[in-house]
Amino acid sequence: MEKVVVLGAGSWGTALSIVLAENGHNCLLWSHREDQANEINHQHSNEKYLPGTVLPTSLKATSSLKEAATHGKTIVMAVPTKGIREVCRNVKEWIQEPILFVHVSKGIEPDSLKRISEVMREELPVHLIEGIVVLSGPSHAEEVVLKHPTTVTAACEDIQYAEKVQDLFMNGNFRVYTNSDVIGVEIGGALKNIIALGAGISDGLGYGDNAKAALITRGLAEIARLGTKMGAKSSTFSGLTGIGDLIVTCTSVHSRNWRAGNLLGKGMKLDDVLNQMGMVVEGVRTTKAAHQLSKFHEVPMPITSALYAVLFEQVDPKIAVDQLMDRVKKHEMEDLFEYL
Ligand SMILES: NC(=O)C1=CN([C@@H]2O[C@H](COP(=O)(O)OP(=O)(O)OC[C@H]3O[C@@H](n4cnc5c(N)ncnc54)[C@H](OP(=O)(O)O)[C@@H]3O)[C@@H](O)[C@H]2O)C=CC1
Ligand SMILES: O=C(CO)COP(=O)(O)O
User: Fold this and answer.
1) Which domains are present in the chain?
2) Cβ pair 284, 201 in contact under 8 A
3) Nearest residue (CA) to ligand 1, atom 5
4) pLDDT along the chain (340 residues), means of 10
5) Ligand 1 center to residue 78 CA distance, Å?
6) Reported pTM
């Protein structure tokens, strides 16, 4: 039994805390809202983020970051990308020994263009980091709490830390693989949200399965094109954190990115969509970051550019789709030519 703390009591932080608590670990879940920590401790529920889910009584919550930071030697960061820097800055004040950090957030920081593990290394003193592992894959919180079979990947350049995280989380319903390609796992997990927004828009416009299959397949091509340029292994994109997460996010009604895209496709304005969602829609900020990355690395990313135009330049979604279809002729495998 290990002592593990999870920072961030939204859907994913809570679902992962349940996995850890039910695996027999002493898991403490930190919420930045005292009322939510009280609800978890006394009602054994988190109605805003996982309605109807009964939390194990062994799962404890706190709103004290000091208590959380001194609970054990493993910290799972489960706040949205936008909150990672702030939480790292605040928690490091209380940490007293090297910590194995696990992050589960799927995004890229706009402007700095940093991946989450890079942001964490910028904010946390090196002597406080035992290792940083990214845990990612096709895994909607709503299905994890129902104990439906789920597979994810724990990635770290130093595979012993990925294996430690595999041991912590793995059980009969939650299968964890390991990988050493941190760049590929982080890029795949972050950029699939852009394509999921696009798939939602396509469905909202009333287009069918042909269009969605096209978005998933050509979306993967542009994610891999950028990712490999950034140093990822191309094989990672055919794994759980690449095509696996793309499939689940583009096809599931649980996906906040798909749902947000669907409302955009039906004509709702972005601000109204985000207000209505009430949960994080990572793909919006990541579209901005990926658009910047594609320019920086001079990698064509037509679907990302179309999404950028819809989200930030008020281009009508139908016109954006027409423009994607009207692009110049291409060979499907042109990316492979570079490697032949
Ligand atoms: N939900 C899922 O199925 C999965 C999510 N992920 C990823 O996990 C990350 C977290 O997502 P998820 O849990 O779903 O998001 P939610 O929107 O469900 O919850 C976010 C939680 O983080 C809290 N929070 C936001 N900003 C801060 C901050 N600065 N400091 C402290 N707490 C903060 C929110 O608090 P408040 O209530 O006050 O807003 C809320 O409790 C995302 O990057 C997402 O892509 C990955 C796999 C699956
Ligand atoms: O990453 C996820 C599933 O793997 C969750 O996706 P959403 O953030 O779109 O709900």
Assistant:
1) 3-180 (3.40.50.720), 190-337 (1.10.1040.10)
2) no
3) 12
4) 97 98 98 98 98 98 98 98 98 97 98 98 98 98 98 98 98 98 98 98 98 98 97 98 98 97 98 96 98 97 98 98 96 74
5) 6
6) 0.98
